[in-house]
Amino acid sequence: MIASLTGEVLTARLDSVVVEVGGVGLLVHTTPATAAAARPGESTRLATSLVVREDSLTLFGFADDDERALFEQVQTVSGVGPRLALAMLAVHPPQQLATAIAGGDVKALTKVPGIGKKGAERIVLELRDKVVSVSGGGGEAAPQAVVPATAGDDQVAEALIGLGWSAKQAEDAVAKVAARPEAEGANTPTLLRLALRELGR
């Protein structure tokens, strides 16, 4: 089990980073907030969870151990795999997700693509009394260098589709966000957060 890694960030996309550790570049899947905090050329430390399948080894990275613990805990619920668990943390920062589960907020959980009312109720039923306590950190991350909104639209739509929304939903959300005054000159991670909020309404 690879519990954490520390190394130089080689590349950072909206939902993944490549970190060089001992001369090897490791692809790590992350939430948009964690990826946005990674700066190419700088050192980073990520708490990690390695998911082993017959045909793949997939590494997921998190800002801290609490976020990783929550990622692993929600997967103990039937029907929740690593991709859905990561989508939950992309839509809701760790503290909000833990609060939603502990408080039985089914509506908040169904904002995640792939989670319906029954699935949300099952997550609450199984985890309500044992969800991990999450510290106040790990929410909004510092953005990367500013990228013009038009240059980031395709990346944002691609990330939303990767999180489980349909292409039409992703394109509609990006179009609505792009029309807002606050989107002018915004960087790509900020556009993605705005789009996630739009889809969560």
Helix-strand layout with pairing:
Layout: E1 4-12, E2 16-21, E3 24-29, H1 32-37, E4 43-53, E5 56-62, H2 65-74, H3 82-91, H4 94-102, H5 106-109, H6 117-127, H7 149-162, H8 167-178, H9 188-199
Parallel strand pairs: 3-5
Antiparallel strand pairs: 1-2, 1-4, 2-3, 4-5
Helix pairs in contact: 2-3, 7-8, 7-9, 8-9
Describe this structure in words.
By secondary structure, the chain is of the alpha+beta class. The protein has three domains: 4-62, Nucleic acid-binding proteins (OB fold (Dihydrolipoamide Acetyltransferase, E2P), Beta Barrel); 66-127, 5' to 3' exonuclease, C-terminal subdomain (DNA polymerase, domain 1), CATH 1.10.150.20; 149-199, Orthogonal Bundle (Helicase, Ruva Protein, domain 3). Helix content is 44%, strand content 19%. It has a five-stranded mixed β-barrel. Helix 2 (65-74) packs across helix 3 (82-91), helix 7 (149-162) runs antiparallel to helix 8 and helix 7 (149-162) packs across helix 9 (188-199). Residues 137-151 have low confidence and may be disordered.
